[in-house]
Amino acid sequence: MTTLTYLEASGTATAIDVPDGWSLMQAAIANGIEGILGECGGSCACATCHCYVDDQLMAVLPPPSAGELDMLDNVAAERRPNSRLACQIKASPALAGGSLQLPEVQE
């Protein structure tokens, strides 16, 4: 398990123990985090799991795939340099202690 903190647009911070190998989107939905919809079920086809990853995660995550970059062009909230799709990030010990902030809108 990897502990990550989800920061909702409302300001609520929730630490979640995410099973290694799960996507950060799966963990958010399973734990009732407000702000991640995941309408496509994690197939990188909707951009409703847009999030902003912190500097710690930015330093260890691989760059987004071409498909993720294409979907990030369709996000409803402001796209930032640290924008990622939570469905494309798999939990692993390297992410422990990181956080992701959720935008105010997803669609």
UniProtKB/TrEMBL annotation:
Q: Which superkingdom heads the taxonomic lineage of this protein's source?
A: Bacteria
Q: Which InterPro entries match?
A: 2Fe-2S_ferredoxin-like_sf, 2Fe-2S_ferredoxin-type, Adrenodoxin-like, Adrenodoxin_Fe-S_BS, Beta-grasp_dom_sf
The signal peptide, as residue positions, is none
| UniProt-recorded name of the protein | 2Fe-2S iron-sulfur cluster-binding protein
Q: Which Gene3D superfamilies match?
A: 3.10.20.30
Domain (2Fe-2S ferredoxin-type): give its ranges: 2-106
Record bears the keyword Hydrolase: no
Which family, according to UniProt?
Answer: Belongs to the adrenodoxin/putidaredoxin family.
Keyword list, A-Z: 2Fe-2S, Iron, Iron-sulfur, Metal-binding
CDD domains in the record, alphabetically? fer2
